[in-house]
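Could you show me just one protein sequence together with its fold in token form as a worked example?
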Amino acid sequence: MPKISVIIPVYNGEKTIKKTIESVLKQTLQDFELIVINDGSQDKTLEILSSIQDPRLRVLSYFNAGLASSRNRGITEATGEYISFLDADDLWTPDKLADQLKVLQENPDAMVAYSWTDCIDELGQFSRRGSHISAVGFVYPELCLIDFLENGSNPLIKRQVFTQVGHFDESLPCAEDWDMWLRLAMDYPFVVVEKPQVLYRVSSESMSSDVWKMEQGCCQVIEQAFSRAPLSLQHLKKDSLANLYKYLIFRSLEGKTNKEKAITAIRFFFQMIKYDLAMLKAKVCLKIIFKIVVILLFPIEQSMIIFKKYSKFSNTSTLLSYLTVKPPHLSKN
């Protein structure tokens, strides 16, 4: 039985799947099985997978059913003592599995280990720093406020816990990973490796429709999380929603911009103010308004020239620093 089962769901991942698998095969810890769930790919994904020769690699093909279903299929097939998921366009640093396993073994009560995340672009180049948040033990209050694991390619989890918490919720349109981490955090302690070991790929071609889908899924997750949270944590719901809309504004204005994204950002801006009126006093609000106005009034080419000239004033990445991540550490009961 391998120590770790690595599960990679893939759908039409011909551009990135080879690099993603290579980042697993280059791990300093080599005691793993690699299960790739081919979710009905129609491109050259299977052809690329067939060219990779490693006895630890298993490729299982199904009709397309979505990311959550593919992860669940991987859990069912896994035989390792621990499970880690990796999306088909993300990467790991070579020490990721070894460091996470070590910190779990040093903390036998913990069932989940996570690392910090940094973002990369389509070419695999560094794009921006992740949140680099460290929370350990009973992290449910912090996790209700923000998904500080940041993506589904992060944690190493003891396989036995899925018997208790169940599998990924396939009814969610997105954010099913945040929902899973919340369910785990309700019952099990977390530990952290305090260095960036997950490289999360962000596409500059993100469409506004993806952001709307993100809003829908995250709002469902927040509602479900606070429906099972104790009374002592209910006051955090407003901050959780404010954090969501701050992040959605950032995603709407990230990468290549257009008027549709600007209009979307306006809608999210008013939602943010609804839940966090104090943000009106923050300088980052002027940056948001400036960027939206420029996008709406000028052609895209001219907008880019203006943003380059006034880069310090148009950069809204500071918005992420306004996310609330450290509530009073309250009792689980």
Summary: Residues 141 and 233 are 7 Å apart (CA to CA). Residues 329-333 have pLDDT under 50 and may be disordered.
